[in-house]
């Protein structure tokens, strides 16, 4: 004979399968369920516990009980993961996508790639569309200009409230309590500066990205490494640049060299910055590493194929993508908890740093 609480469980399951209840929808209150099925509050709570254990519903304090993300309208409906990146065809992003795909395919999940072009307006448009259509089961997102205030943060929280989980990859918004998978960017800046110190450098400049949270963290690590060795940090030899300025960095090469005058080494925000700084030096008749030692971050193809192969710190982009996808599918398919994970960068030594013996 069917137990009373099982009638409620079966009814909720049927409502989900029929589409009457979609992910993110609120279930009737305990009082409403008591009245509908003519049962006690204890029976209703037993049913909700059973549904929660099966990953079908989740309670939200002060708000009620909601259908969770891993319930779809039909059992045979595909799990669709949106991958929202700033760009897709350059730098480390192909590796991130490769890693994501390697984890989604075995789970039978599909990937929808969208690009923000690192524009807040386009990020907003895409997020609103996901909210309107509820067409994806989860979102793996790279942040847009995370070093600046962003008006779209409420949209990410709205997605979470709808039962569509979000996971940040490669970077994150510090003002959101949403997990991320990334390299430890503070550690990257710290290790880059420390490596130059260990090679005898004391006059170490830096170039960092101002509109990117990664740039802020890498700068913090750079400062920590220098102050740890009581090395004076000259503010004029730290250069801040934004996304637009970085694109035209070589055209403004004289400004960068003027700011780095007197430095024997420079920590660069990433390999792209380091690659362009090498070209600026060569155009000005300066030799890397004899006149200026340069360290990049990410260990991308640019580091390997630069005219002066760059010493850099490995950003395990493919592993980031794979880990993010595994966490997302675990959340959607098995109701597993997602927690932030940061990978420690590894030094890859090449030709762009020389050992010096400064007084």
From TrEMBL:
Residue ranges of domain HTH gntR-type in the record: 2-70
Name assigned to this protein: GntR family transcriptional regulator
Pfam families: GntR, Peripla_BP_3
PANTHER family to which the protein is assigned, alphabetical: ARABINOSE METABOLISM TRANSCRIPTIONAL REPRESSOR, LACI-RELATED TRANSCRIPTIONAL REPRESSOR
Entry annotated with the keyword DNA-binding: yes
SMART domains the record matches: HTH_GNTR (SM00345)
Keywords in alphabetical order: DNA-binding, Transcription, Transcription regulation
Keyword Transcription belongs to the record: yes
GO molecular function: DNA-binding transcription factor activity; transcription cis-regulatory region binding
Domain of life: Bacteria
Stored InterPro entries: AraR_ligand_bind_dom, LacI/GalR-like_sensor, Peripla_BP_I, Tscrpt_reg_HTH_GntR, WH-like_DNA-bd_sf, WH_DNA-bd_sf
């Amino acid at each position: 004979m069917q137990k009373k609480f099982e009638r409620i469980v079966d009814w909720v399951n049927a409502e989900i399968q029929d589409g009457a209840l979609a992910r993110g929808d609120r279930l009737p209150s305990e009082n409403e369920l008591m009245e509908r099925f003519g049962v006690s509050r204890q029976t209703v709570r037993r049913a909700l516990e059973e549904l929660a254990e099966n990953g079908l519903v989740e309670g939200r304090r002060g708000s009620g009980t909601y259908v969770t993300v891993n319930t779809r309208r039909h059992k045979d409906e595909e799990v669709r993961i949106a991958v929202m990146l700033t760009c897709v065809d350059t730098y480390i992003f192909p590796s991130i996508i490769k890693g994501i795909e390697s984890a989604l395919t075995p789970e039978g999940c599909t990937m929808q790639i969208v690009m923000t072009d690192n524009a807040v307006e386009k990020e907003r448009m895409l997020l609103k569309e996901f909210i309107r259509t509820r067409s994806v089961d989860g979102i793996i997102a790279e942040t847009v200009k995370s070093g600046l205030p962003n008006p779209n943060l409420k949209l990410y929280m709205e997605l979470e409230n709808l039962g569509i989980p979000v996971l940040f990859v490669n970077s994150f918004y510090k003002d959101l309590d949403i997990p991320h998978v990334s390299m430890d960017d503070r550690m990257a800046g710290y290790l880059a500066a420390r490596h130059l110190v260990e090679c005898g450098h004391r006059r170490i400049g830096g170039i960092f990205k101002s509109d990117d949270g990664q740039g802020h963290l890498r700068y913090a690590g750079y400062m920590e490494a220098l102050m740890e060795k009581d090395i004076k940090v000259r503010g004029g030899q730290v250069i801040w640049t934004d996304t637009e300025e970085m694109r035209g960095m070589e055209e403004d090469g004289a400004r960068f060299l003027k700011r780095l005058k007197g430095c024997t080494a420079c920590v660069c925000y990433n390999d792209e910055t380091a690659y362009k700084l090498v070209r600026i030096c060569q155009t000005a008749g300066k030799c890397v590493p004899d006149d200026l030692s340069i360290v990049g971050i990410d260990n991308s193809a640019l580091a390997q194929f630069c005219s002066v192969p760059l010493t850099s710190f490995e950003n395990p982009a493919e592993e980031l993508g794979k880990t993010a996808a595994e966490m997302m599918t675990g959340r959607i398919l098995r109701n597993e908890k997602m927690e932030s994970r940061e990978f420690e960068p590894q030094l890859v030594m090449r030709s762009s740093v020389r050992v010096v013996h400064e007084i």
